[in-house]
Amino acid sequence: MAIREIRKEGDPVLRRVAKEVTKFTPELKKLARDMADTMYDADGVGLAAPQIGVSKRIWVIDVGDGLFAMVNPEITLQEGEQIGPEGCLSIPGYSYETSRYEHVICKGYDLDGNEKVVEGNGLLARALQHETDHLNGILFVDRLRRFVAR
Ligand code: NI
After folding, report:
1. Ligand 1 center to residue 127 CA distance, Å?
2. What distance in angstroms lies between residue 90's CA and the mean position of ligand 1's atoms?
3. What does the pLDDT look like over 44-77, one tens digit per residue?
4. Which residues span the domain enclosing 134?
5. Most CB contacts within 10 A, which of 47, 63, 73, 133?
6. Are 112 and 24 in contact (CB under 8 A)?
7. What is the CATH number of the domain that holds 51?
8. Into how many domains does the chain fold?
């Protein structure tokens, strides 16, 4: 069990486009284990590697249906809309109503390098979008609608 420090907004690693994973090694599994330990310790439902300072394309998610990891994930279908509260372990203490696609399909690889497809609605779809955004240097606050005072 290894809980790692969660990087906070302002840390440049969160703004980098993470590197593709090319080798499925025991170290990758150890990284995923540390990410899961860190996520559960912080009561999160997802964590991306850049959030513990590792600029690689991998995240872990557990929205209550069990833990899974995805390597080199890509959202290949997105449709519908949902608006609901969203937060981020890298921006502690804040939650905002955030618009996301209601239904997505995400394709990538598991920790052994096998192709993996996850399809989700609602909270799972939100987590898939949120965590994949992290790998592209995007934070959920970037997705908030801008209200212009007048
Ligand atoms: Ni986040």
Report:
1. 9
2. 6
3. 999 999 999 999 999 999 999 999 999 999 999 9
4. 12-143
5. 47
6. yes
7. 3.90.45.10
8. 1
